[in-house]
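(Deposited chain)
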Amino acid sequence: MTCAIIDDEPLAADLLASYVEKTPFLQLVGTYSSAVEAMKMIRNNAVDLLFLDIQMPELSGLEFATILPQHTMVVFTTAFDRYAVESYRVNALDYLLKPISYDSFLRSANKALQNYELMNAVCHEGNTRARFFFVKSGYKLVRVDFDEILYIEGVKDYVRLWLTGEDRKIDSLMNMKTLEALLPKTDFMRIHRSYIINLSKVQHLDHLRILIGCIHLPVSDGYKEAVMKYFSQHTIE
């Protein structure tokens, strides 16, 4: 996996770079002292993983995370634990507290590798994308067919996939951003930071609540425009 480091503390950045160097599945493509400095590189080059400091001048790591490409995974690195909740709101893969040991760094890197392999395991048969993927749940790899998904719920640092059939669900240790990137946008839509829906399972939309099965799911303000545009395009007057 390609990765980059963004940290305005030279010693912290150098330490992370040394950790990357001895991790065989990571390739460092850049080290930057600010998010503004890194912005051009991120736009022009696909980076799989960012080790991103939170407290930085001009543009914080939390702000920068909101404008990253969908597929880019983020591990926040910070000396302050008070940002943990906010980091999950921007779908960070992990959160490392300084001073960072190689053991904790490697756990985060392995978590990123699992997500990376999962994204690449969504294979193509010819030019047709497979209609399923495998997710890791406990010690098992479980096949999930797209057509069986009702909706997906983000719960702290894991996701819960709700499937057709009575109370069928699968919990998997990944984040919503990673899973959203795997799903075909023609069939699935993010309606809330905590919910992705299968559009074919929608029964009705009522006052920014979507009914799927017997569950009403809220549409948040950040996704309202996209949701209303979709329903407008698929409504017969």
About this structure: The chain is about 30% helix and 35% strand. Residues 123-128 have pLDDT under 50 and may be disordered. The first strand starts at residue 2 and ends at 6.
